[in-house]
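Handout, page 2. Input:
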Amino acid sequence: TKFKTSIATTVASLALLASNPTMAGPGKPGNNPIVPDGTIIDIALAVNDGGAGEFNGLLSAVLCFGPVDDNPIVDLLSGSDKYTLFAPVDSAFADLLDRLSDIFETDITSPCDLDPELLFTVLAYHVTDGRRFSNSVFNSNSSKSIEMLAGGYVVSFVDMIDGPLLHDADGQMVGVVPGLFDINAKNGVIHVVDKVLLPIDLPEAD
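Output:
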């Protein structure tokens, strides 16, 4: 498929990540059962090749900027520099496209239907410099401002009821998917989130 790379990956499902005991516990760097010593991109591709499909939306958005072997975002997240990626699940992208369709009163069915500059900014708003495990991202005693590659910030905090949350520029409260955080990559860390982080305050639909 178009998501496959020349690197041999282990075929696995997202359920394997969720059930692996090394992934449990905020702040405890987990192993990577899907692609040992793989990059952030290797992990995302392997999850999809395994049939879980949780990163179809994210990978589709990334591929709007070119094929895997000639893509600036793929190059960034498969290089040697260390990054932390907040990776939205497929339902998050589906919800965003539905919301944008209502706002602009037009049928938006693909991330590639969006303005390329806006889409790039949205994707860059999911990445921050450095390898940041959950104990660095979330502080149970106070909120933290995290600068993203897009230039804006998200605010992280821990709610007594809802647990770890991110507050974006749109005012959304974005949750971390239980069991799917601190996914250790060769060049960074992945935390799976339940909404697409937005770097701007979107208008309300009429």
